[in-house]
Write a structure and sequence with these properties.
The strands form two sheets. Strands 1, 2, 3, 4, 5, 6 and 10 form a seven-stranded mixed β-sheet that branches. This protein is α/β, with parallel strands linked by helices and about 170 residues long. The chain contains four helices and ten strands, in the order E-H-E-E-E-H-E-H-E-E-E-E-E-H. Helix 1 links the parallel strand 1 and strand 2. The longest helix is centred in the first third of the chain and has 13 residues.
Amino acid sequence: MKTIGLFYGSETGNTENAASMIAAQLGEGNVVLHNISECDAQSLLSYDNIILGASTWGFGELQSDWENFLPGFDELDLTGKTVAFFGLGDQVNYADVFLDAMGTIYEKVVERGGQPIGAWPADGYDFSASTAVVDGYFVGLALDADNQDDMTPDRIGSWVAGIQGQLQ
């Protein structure tokens, strides 16, 4: 398996913690972690396998580092890149915009030619709307550190096991 670039933005540390758990599951030697506040979108082109992690803020907005990072995707050709997503959100207090940031990033990756992997069942969550749901599945791993943090390790383990065979 080729090296995986795992890019995340984190305000409170929850997304960073999830990124570290995902990297550990994939094997530390296989993953290079990138805090997007310290790099630019061109960095993605160094990898054939990319994992993007973001939390949703406010009423469906991108985390602040992603607001600066995502416009750089307009210059990228992600054709031939395998891209997985994970998102964090609060399904109780923001049920109508749960994981919308992940949906926004997914749409941009698809627009730029990336090949998405890692869809995740929407079962087991209590939300009313999400732009991160396509055909009844989340476009990537759905995590809720506020209300279901105890489920995070098992969800990460299952998701990583599911995507490993799809990574190049």
